[in-house]
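Worked problem 6 (solution included).
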Amino acid sequence: MKRFSEELIKIVEETSLLFDEISQEDWNYRSAPGKWSRKEILGHLIDSAANNHQRFVRVQFEDNPAITYEQNKWVSTEDFNNASTDNLITLWRSYNKHLAYIISVIPKDKFTNQCNIGKEEPVTLEWLFKDYVKHLGHHINQIIT
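Solution. The predicted structure is:
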């Protein structure tokens, strides 16, 4: 999974530069009532990293662990709009660099191990890597546009 690890590092490095160009006002702006601000989307990406960290590690030695989370409740509970933007960016950057490292050291024979993430059917570890990068890209686009 070296390819996914390298892709994740590239995304983090390129996106970090783009995040520096966003004003504090824009980080807190909500496009509509009930929609997440850019800062809340970034917080959601941190939550996603935390949950996928569990998945990437535990699926290697547990049989089909169930690792799900209520994303809206997490974002609401964590009050990201009042958190330091710089701290959130630093945490997001560091967490993803660590995930890239974890992905790079997972033995290939573990890629087909499965995890229950709340979908109808369990997913493989390889599917989790691909989905994580896709999910990250989707939300980064929301933040930078």
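Discussion: The chain has a mean pLDDT of 96.
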